[in-house]
Amino acid sequence: MSAPFWPAVDRDTELNRLWLSWLVRLRWVAITAQLLTLSLSVHLFPELWVFGPLVVIVGLLVLANVRLLQRLGRPDGFDDTTIVLQLLLDVGALTGIFLLAGGSTNPFVELFLIHIALAAVMVPARKAALVTGTAVVAYLLVSWVHLPLVWTNHTLPPDALRVIGETMAFTITAASVSVFVVGLATTLRRRERQLLAARDRTARTDRLRTVGTMAAGAAHELNTPLSTLGLRLGRIGRRHDDPDTVRDLTVARDQVERCTGIVQQLLFGAGDPSASELVRLPVRRLVDETITLWSKGSRCKVTIDDRSEGAPIAIPRIAFSQALVNLLENAREAQEAQEPMPPIEVRIEPHPGRIVVVIRDHGTGLPPDQDRVGDPFYTTKVSGTGLGVFVARSLAEGAGGGLSYTRLPDGTEARWVFPTT
């Protein structure tokens, strides 16, 4: 089986980056709460010098968070160890704060639980156990060794201060856990949708490879009779040189040449976009090449409105040509009953991060069950296979784009989307 052209995303790195972004947000909340608490409880410290180290600890957390934000802004990879180190940094900062501010008697000591919960979700069991064990040891340490808070130094009664502190600690803990769990649930739902979309793309690719195998077999079978037909036409041309015969032979040779080109493409690409070489070319050049080939066997004209200014896309060249031929054929067949036949309009539109190739016809329009357009083997034509749109859509989706159809008052518009490179 051929390897896909478009590299898979490292899901572990992507997930770890997501966890770290949540740590940054929660740490900003913790820093804000710590600064607020310090400003309200400065009178509870036995000595004024204690306030200095506490501010230094909070400042180090600010610097660490800024540094982590800078790393998240770069395309670096992140592993579980990075998350563990960040959680241990927070546990260490809390330990330093509680050593200087009341130890286990400080109402905010339950903030250790937030980091235990985060570790349980973000990292594997062994590393989560490491963070949990460190938090337990830190709790025991601050229980035995700490500078006491002088509750009587404040204007409020000690019991009232404890109630206020416990309420604030509970609120911070509840809000942090709630926000994180809501974010986690949203992330899981998004990843589930991505997984379902990936499964759908895989199923489409598998069906496309099956069709490709069938196409390759058919191409092999057609190659010999086409060669024989070309030789026979040559012999007829040498025997008969009257104008009518020459004209008919010219049309027949053009059709044989076109069929031979299609067979060669099928033999090369086997109908599978991942079976031909990925190239990076201006989309206008790819469109021109395909229309030149297609026009040899069609009396329908094509107008091109190019607004892309040479923007390139990375795509399998042969597969792009095959798919665009399919879309042009569909557009021609939709309006072939009209006399004179109007031209097919092709527009190349640039958009931020993507290029849209628009194929506009003036034909019969979409069928009533237009949502099925693009499903394999679905067709409304008597002699159709239902694979043309399917191949074009699979190619675009494999590159990160897509294909959609819009019903117009006097025809149909196909929008074929590709990411720019």
Task: Kindly list the characteristics that best describe this protein.
421 residues, alpha+beta, Heat Shock Protein 90, 5-stranded mixed sheet, 61% helix, rod-shaped, disordered N terminus
Work out the oligomeric state of the chains in this entry.
single chain
Distance between the termini: 26 Å
In total, the number of strands is: 7
Radius of gyration: 34 Å
Helix fraction?
A: 55-70%
Spatial strand sequence of the major β-sheet: 2-4-5-7-6
Extract low-pLDDT stretches. Answer: 1-11, 271-275
Main beta sheet strand tally, sense and closure = 5 strands, mixed
General shape? rod-shaped
Order of helices and strands: HHHHHHHEHEEHEEHEE
**Proportion of residues in extended strands:** 5-15%
How many helices in DSSP terms? 10
